UniProtKB/TrEMBL annotation:
Keyword field contains Oxidoreductase: yes
PANTHER family: GLYCEROL-3-PHOSPHATE DEHYDROGENASE, GLYCEROL-3-PHOSPHATE DEHYDROGENASE [NAD(+)] 2, CHLOROPLASTIC
Residue span(s) of domain Glycerol-3-phosphate dehydrogenase NAD-dependent C-terminal: 183-323
Protein name: Glycerol-3-phosphate dehydrogenase [NAD(P)+]
UniProt function note: Catalyzes the reduction of the glycolytic intermediate dihydroxyacetone phosphate (DHAP) to sn-glycerol 3-phosphate (G3P), the key precursor for phospholipid synthesis.
Main location: cytoplasm
Top-level taxonomy: Bacteria, Bacillati, Bacillota, Bacilli, Bacillales
UniProt family annotation: Belongs to the NAD-dependent glycerol-3-phosphate dehydrogenase family.
Record key words, sorted: Cytoplasm, Lipid biosynthesis, Lipid metabolism, NAD, NADP, Nucleotide-binding, Oxidoreductase, Phospholipid biosynthesis, Phospholipid metabolism, Signal
Molecular-function GO term, any one: glycerol-3-phosphate dehydrogenase [NAD(P)+] activity
Residues of the Glycerol-3-phosphate dehydrogenase NAD-dependent N-terminal domain: 5-162
Annotated residues for binding of NADPH: 13-14, 34, 51, 108, 142, 258, 282, 284
């Protein structure tokens, strides 16, 4: 067993679940939160009741509100802050993190203001090269990881040695299997854009549509992810893996998905502000829909599902009319889109 210190920032549901994996692997985990009451509950009662009610946390996890203390002497730092807060958290960490510490993030989203991926945001604030920032992604609901249900994810970095270091840190034979992938752009893009499609899946279910509609949505959603990914430099093969179709299936079909639940509520006619208030937690798909819509326009990529969800979320379009707009699109050939993706440099 290893006995390395790892800082986890922040103590939401996913950060807490990954902290458990690390603690189970023998790491000493410093779990940072801004909330003093939450830190006391974790340390004294081994609970994080707001985010993972009923789950008991192992003794290897220690919460703190002092970010300098959290990262002091840490051999690795795991960023799990919401995309909207990632830059601020990285900025707070920068003066205290050792220059040789491994940096990993497990956040699925873009910075809406700049359209930058999380690895770029972290690298900028830490003053590091993006090449050794690692992204952890894949089908992985916190509610299942926290109770040690079998889960498989991927860690991606341009520098394979950094991805392998993260793989060593997280992988165990009991319930958490980790693959490596050099396609950082593809893994981050897939993880972010699938949240848009999950919103659509929840909306579809909320409207009372069946399996046919959801299967079509997931399949065509994957095509949108692959088109955008290829346009910004990703390997199309990544989208056939855990970060792509794997995460997409998991998020679009699960009761645990915040994005699915938000989409379902939107279908019931609730305004976005009320949906977000009821959720009480970050719904990354909302911000990502805005970013994805802008990225599609910037790169000249056709993303009709994203476009219609953008209209529902930010332009007041009725969900039923958005479905009609998707079904009434001009006819096209599926194989041409696949061929277009395959003509990228990755598959030559």
């Amino acid at each position: 067993m290893v006995h390395r210190k790892v800082a986890v920032l922040v103590a939401g549901s996913w950060g807490t679940a990954l902290a458990r994996v690390l603690a189970d692997n023998g790491c000493s985990v410093a779990l940072w939160t801004r909330n003093e009451a939450q830190a006391i509950e974790i340390n004294e009662h081994r609970r994080n009741s707001k985010y993972l009610p009923g789950a008991e946390l192992p003794p290897g996890i220690r919460a703190t509100t002092d970010i300098a203390e959290a990262v002091k002497d840490a051999e690795a730092a795991l960023f799990v802050a919401p995309s909207a807060a990632m830059r601020d958290v990285a900025k707070l960490v920068a003066p205290h993190l050792h220059k040789d510490a491994l940096v990993i993030h497990a956040t699925k989203g873009f910075e809406t203001e700049t359209l930058k991926r999380m690895s770029v945001v972290i690298a900028e604030e830490l003053g590091r090269s993006e090449s050794c920032i690692v992204a952890l992604s894949g089908p992985s609901h916190a509610e299942e990881v926290i109770v040690r249900q079998p889960t498989t994810v991927v860690v991606a970095a341009q520098d394979l040695s950094c991805a392998e270091a993260a793989q060593d840190l997280f992988m165990n034979d009991a319930y958490f299997r980790v693959y490596t992938n050099p396609d950082l752009i593809g893994v981050e893009t897939a993880g972010a854009i699938k949240n848009i499609i999950a919103l659509g899946a929840g909306l579809s279910d909320g409207l009372g549509f069946g399996d046919n509609a959801k299967a079509a949505l997931v399949t065509r959603g994957l095509a949108e992810i692959a088109r955008l990914g290829a346009a910004i430099g990703a390997n199309p093969l990544t989208f056939a893996g855990l970060a792509g179709v794997g995460d997409l299936i998991g998020t679009c079909t699960s009761k645990h998905s915040r994005n699915w639940r938000a989409g379902s509520m939107l279908a019931q006619g609730l305004p976005l502000s009320e949906v977000l208030e009821r959720m009480g937690m970050v719904v990354e798909g909302v911000r990502t829909t805005k970013a994805g819509h802008i990225l599609a326009e910037r790169h000249g990529v056709e993303m009709p599902i994203t476009s219609q969800l953008y209209a529902v979320l930010f332009e007041g379009k009725e969900p039923g009319k958005a479905v009609g707009a998707l079904m009434g699109r001009e006819r096209t050939h599926e194989i041409e889109e696949i061929a277009s993706a395959s003509r990228t440099k990755w598959l030559r």
